[in-house]
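User: For a reading group we're discussing how well predicted structures match intuition. Take TetR/AcrR family transcriptional regulator. Before you show the prediction, I'll give you the sequence so everyone sees exactly what went in.
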Amino acid sequence: MSEPRNPDPPDAGPAGHRRASIGARRHPAAEMAILEAARALLTEKGYAGFSIDEVARRAGAGKPTIYRWWPSKADLFIAVYAADKAAAIQAPDTGDLADDLAAYTTALWRFWRETPSGAAFKGLLAEAQASDPALTALREKFLPVRLSDLGCVFTRAVERGEIAAEDAPALLRLYIGFHWVHLLTGRIDEDPALIDQMARLIARAGRPARPAGQHD
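Assistant: Thanks. Here is the predicted 3D structure of TetR/AcrR family transcriptional regulator, as structure tokens, for the group to look at:
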């Protein structure tokens, strides 16, 4: 979306008060108001009913300001999703890769089932198949953060000697793919046996090759 040539008009607060435009510099109170309005809208209407227009109206913010900070609906959703997920889930560190993956999977699937932003995530995946801005946000903003978030789990496994360093990136992508196929096919009910099997298969697949002639 192109930026207006003139400065933004003053933003209207929820009670009719006016806030001076703050342009590219993010004011914490304005940012919080926008994110809270976005979160409330997701709770009420899900991803399908999520729009920059309605968020701007609820937050008393100018649309040019929102678009300057979050260039698309997908970008704003990712900001809400990331904040909610960070508050709900911490990367586990049990000392065992399979146990870490099982614990993280259980927590993530619960987040997808029980929170508005988690439940709406499937809408972003669907939109990305038909919208270039959504696909760009998913590929260039959401996925790198996700890889970094989970990367520490695999990095620690490499440091413990559980998996080969050269296999860690591919194993991480396999793990993410497992999540997304279950989300997109509506199969994220907690299934401890399935989750444990997946976690142990990934951990086993990454075991470093033993030198020739070496046996357990």
